Amino acid sequence: MTTHAEEGALARCRVLVVEDEYFIADDMAKALEKLGAEVVGPVPKREKALALISSGEKIDAAVLDINLRGEEVFPVADALAAHGIPFVFATGYDASSIPPSYAAVPRWEKPFSPDALSRALPAIVRNA
């Protein structure tokens, strides 16, 4: 349950959700919207995420699934990092599956609570 203080914690923040599992993406989007975020996507494919980033679409933060139907999301992570956009990995993979260059990126292991993830995102956005 979202507290009154948490509501609006992501107000005016545009959060890109890159997730290929429809129900997980939908749950994440709903949790983020409860906190006032405007969800960009969700997008299930790496190419679409890269196109959104390169188009100049305003993105304040992102949640990235690592495996998008057999394609790794790391090129999206590279593009976000190049634009100074903070992101988290939401994945079933363990830390050893993540390249060392992303060791400092927060990683949320599936299954996780979309509400807990969305509540943690404001701190990531503020600290970017």
TrEMBL record:
Gene Ontology terms: biological process: phosphorelay signal transduction system
InterPro entries: CheY-like_superfamily, Sig_transdc_resp-reg_receiver
Organism (species): Microvirga vignae
Annotated ranges, domain Response regulatory: 14-125
Protein name: Chemotaxis protein CheY
UniProt keyword annotations, A-Z: Phosphoprotein
Gene3D superfamilies for this protein: 3.40.50.2300
Residues modified as 4-aspartylphosphate: 65
Domain of life: Bacteria
Keyword Phosphoprotein: yes
